[in-house]
Design a protein that fits this description.
Length: about 550
């Protein structure tokens, strides 16, 4: 490992396991051959017919994003379905190989090592004020813009003998860089991670991600074959000891809420890789999961995301290709505004857990609800200690893991001034217009978008007290200011933070009023939707 000193931090660059394309192709084809071989001809035909149907449907709905090679592969598969089992299985194999090459980016150990050495300096420049020189933050201003917290020493020690799955919440397309930066600051190992195909449209980000361990995930492909190849790829990487990062929520939170539901597909690859390691008696088969909660004062794509959440077809769009992130100049401007805040992003590493969702101690041993250590291998092995495959059982274990992650995300959410002020602003509008539902409140006319400043301050004071109580109960964390006049301070901090970030002001002062943009205040305030209610902050409104 090569240590890199960054403004008082010692960052270790770890060698990322980087299997060759030939090695990955062979492994994936072997896994998929085994999977497909278990299907009889009728089940195989139905499985592949679903692929053809869904891909043709995608081609017709989004023709501009489809290449000629994609069309040829799917039409070749369609012809093979009429030519018998042998042709059908050969066509499936060709598609598996194509997806394998698409998913696995071609980055070498040399380019990765170089990028690891250059990334800290590049990110330092991106996330530092213009007059701060080579330091991350000016020495005169001790407040870190990116705050990294959690049981870092414990996670670092566990990483020496365990393969880690880093599982963050998903707020923005900048998340992977921020989490990668936080991993560097914490001295934690580098991770492979899946990045949406649309992110590579930004040339700078695409280059950085491909050099820093990103593999491609095309969320437009909704058919089982692609998802199964992706899961096989993730399982293979984890099984080879590559620390991995993926977002269990699947995509960015459109509404701004902390995740309340998770996708089980990639999440379940950890338990499969662990059991394969046990069955093969690998030297270090153990896999642990680390929840990570991102709490951001500002979100680059907030305007587009909340529009998508409010639109009738928000769920159907699933992936936005034309949001603020696709414009490099917008990303740079946002980064410059972001680092002007005292605390812009909090990356909270949560308590590590096993792939069943149980907490673990400093040695990585599983603990029950009473803090007693137990052998987790007993959950997946027979009386002779051999791992036993059971898909239904593993599905239930993955559900338990997902529930544990959701609990960690809520507990480790850090309440920031922008969240609290926006939450109060949105619900204060609800008090003024009690008969409007969420959608109609979001469409208030500009001349209706205001709240009495004294009402805002009183609401913020009550909300801050409610957050304090929630922190004491272990329901969340907080970085709100303290002191006698903190409600006014919170409001002022939020107004200053929001100034000039989006095309519309989230909150702004006008004489005795506070102007409140309903859509953006809904987005930022939703971060607290699972924590506070209007009743908690003494603001009664119709549901």
């Amino acid at each position: 490992m090569l240590p890199i000193s960054i403004s008082g931090f010692t960052v270790a660059t770890h060698t990322l396991i980087n299997p060759s394309h030939r090695s990955i192709d062979k492994a994936l084809i072997g896994r998929m051959d085994e999977f497909l071989g278990a299907l009889d001809d009728q089940a195989m035909a139905a499985y592949l017919a679903n692929t053809v149907f869904l891909e043709r449907s995608r081609f017709s709905k989004h023709p501009d994003g489809v290449t000629a090679k994609e069309r040829d592969r799917i039409e070749g598969l369609a012809r093979a379905l009429t030519q018998g089992p042998v042709a059908m299985r050969k066509a499936a194999g060709r598609l598996v190989r194509a997806y394998s090459r698409e998913i696995h980016n071609r980055f070498s150990d040399v380019s990765f090592s170089t990028a690891m050495r250059l990334a800290p300096a590049a990110l330092t420049r991106l996330l530092s004020p213009a007059d701060s020189g080579s330091r991350i933050w000016p020495e005169a201003d001790g407040a870190d813009r990116v705050v990294v917290s959690g049981p870092i020493d414990k996670i670092r020690a566990l990483a020496e003998h365990h393969t880690l799955i880093i599982a963050p919440t998903h707020v923005s397309n900048l998340d992977s860089l921020l989490v990668g930066y936080a991993l560097h600051l914490a001295g934690l190992p580098a991770c492979t991670y899946g990045a949406g195909l649309n992110l590579f449209s930004n040339p700078v980000m695409g280059f950085l991600m491909s050099k820093l361990g990103a593999y491609t995930v095309d969320r437009r492909k909704g058919h089982r074959l692609y998802k199964d190849v992706l899961k096989a790829y993730s399982t293979e990487l984890i099984g080879r000891g590559a620390h991995s990062l993926f977002y269990p929520g699947g995509t960015r939170s459109r509404s701004g809420c902390v995740e309340t539901a998770l996708k089980r597909g990639l999440l379940g690859t950890g338990i499969v890789a662990w059991q394969e390691g046990l069955a093969e008696e690998a030297p270090s088969p153990e896999v642990l999961v680390v929840p990570v909660t991102l709490s951001c004062s500002l979100v680059l794509e907030a305007e587009t995301l909340i529009e998508d959440a409010l639109s009738a077809d928000g769920g159907a769009r699933y992936i936005i290709s034309d949001d603020e992130f696709s414009r490099p100049s917008t990303v740079l401007k946002f980064a410059q505004q972001l680092i002007a805040l005292d605390t812009s992003v909090v990356v909270r590493f949560g308590a590590p857990m096993d792939t069943l969702g149980n907490p673990v101690d400093e040695q990585g041993l599983s603990m029950d609800g009473d803090g007693r250590v137990f052998d987790r291998r007993l959950y997946v092995t027979d009386r002779c200690g051999k791992a036993v495959e059971d898909t239904q059982r593993d599905r239930e274990y993955t559900n338990h893991l997902a529930k544990a992650l959701l609990g960690a995300y809520q507990r480790d959410t850090v309440v920031l001034p922008t969240h609290l002020a926006a939450f109060v602003g949105w619900h204060a509008l609800g008090v003024r217009f009690p008969r409007l539902d969420t959608y109609n409140r979001a469409l208030l006319a500009p001349f209706e978008q205001w709240v009495d400043r004294s009402v805002m301050v009183a609401g913020i004071a009550a909300a801050a007290d409610a957050v304090d109580a929630a922190v004491l109960r272990g329901r969340c964390r907080s970085m709100l200011p303290t002191g006698k006049n903190r409600a006014t301070e919170i409001l002022t901090m939020a107004v200053d933070a929001f100034s000039g970030v989006h095309t519309r002001q989230v909150l702004s002062f006008e004489d005795w009023r506070v102007l409140v943009d309903p859509k953006l205040s809904l987005y930022y305030g939703n971060r607290l939707s699972g924590l506070l209610s209007p009743k908690d902050i003494q603001m009664e409104e119709n549901p």
